[in-house]
Amino acid sequence: MKKIILIFAILLIVCGCNNDDNNNETLPPATQTGAGTFACYVNGKPYIDKSGGWFNCYYQFVDGQYYFAIGGEDRNHPVFDFIAIASNSSEIEGGKEYPLLCNQTNNHYAEVAFTNQLLTTTTCNTNYGTLVITKLDFDNKIVSGNFEFDVIHPNTGETIQIRDGRFDTLFTQ
Predict the structure, then answer these.
(1) Is there a contact between 27 and 39 (Cβ–Cβ < 8 Å)?
(2) Which residues are within 8 A (CB) of 159 and not within 5 positions of it... i.e. 6 or more apart?
(3) In this structure, how many other beta carbons lie within 10 angstroms of the beta carbon of residue 118?
(4) Residues 91, 35, 48, 21: is their CA dihedral positive or negative?
(5) Residue 6 lies in a domain
(6) What is the mean pLDDT of the chain?
(7) Span of the secretion signal (predicted)?
(8) pLDDT digits (tens, 9 = 90+) for 40-74
(9) Strand partners, 83
(10) Rounded to an integer, what distance in angstroms lies between the CA atom of residue 147 and that of residue 110?
(11) b/e sequence 64-89, b meaning 16+ C-beta within 10 Å
């Protein structure tokens, strides 16, 4: 009888465990159709813009220079509520990879805003980050890409990893 109670207790414990690392939410697929998606993993946790594709994305020629920007928002994420990928006086092309550096002329960069804080940081303080434009379609105004980068928390010094990022949306010119 003691063996049956012990087995039942073990089964109850094993079946009742809640694994916090088991997150059923997955990122949307990486597409190139103008689907209106922006997502990535931040320190392993899904970050998904759920605004239905109504985020700001532009690729514009201003004063003789090109500027690109896309931003995603996830107000329920524990680390960031806003992530932006951009270029400063620098063109983008489909099929090309760009390093994410500082927000300076002729660079591409990423910027993040921390959830519930008036605090931002950029890829300027790390040595790691890439943006790959997988599609740039001027006729249909579609831009798609992949990204990943690290940022350093300005208060704690912690390295925060953004991985498996993807976006697919329409842009304005």
Answers:
(1) yes
(2) 126, 150, 151, 152, 153
(3) 6
(4) negative
(5) no
(6) 86
(7) 1-19
(8) 999 999 999 987 766 789 999 999 999 999 999 99
(9) 72, 112
(10) 9
(11) eeebbbbbbbbeebebbbbbbbbbbe
CB proximity list for 111: less than 8 A, separation 6 or greater: 83, 84, 86, 103, 120, 121, 122, 123
Between the two ends of the chain, the Cα-to-Cα distance in Å is 75
Q: Which two tokens stand for residue 40?
A: 């990535």
Residue holding tokens 């925060």?
Answer: 160
How many structural domains is the chain composed of?
Answer: 1
Encode pLDDT of 106-155 as tens digits: 999 999 999 888 899 999 888 799 999 999 999 999 999 999 999 999 99
In whole angstroms, give the CA distance from residue 149 to residue 80. 14
CB–CB of 60/172 below 8 Å? yes
Task: Report d(CA 155, CA 103) in Å as an integer.
Answer: 20
Confidence of residue 11 (pLDDT cuts 50, 70, 90): very low
For residue 1, is pLDDT > 50?
A: no
Q: Cα dist. 119→44, 73, 99, 122 in Å?
A: 21, 15, 23, 11
In a domain, 81, yes or no: yes
Q: Give SS3 for 89.
A: coil
Is 2 within a domain? no
In the numeric block, which tokens belong to residue 115?
Answer: 């959830």
Has residue 16 been placed in a domain? no
Which residue type is seen at 77? H
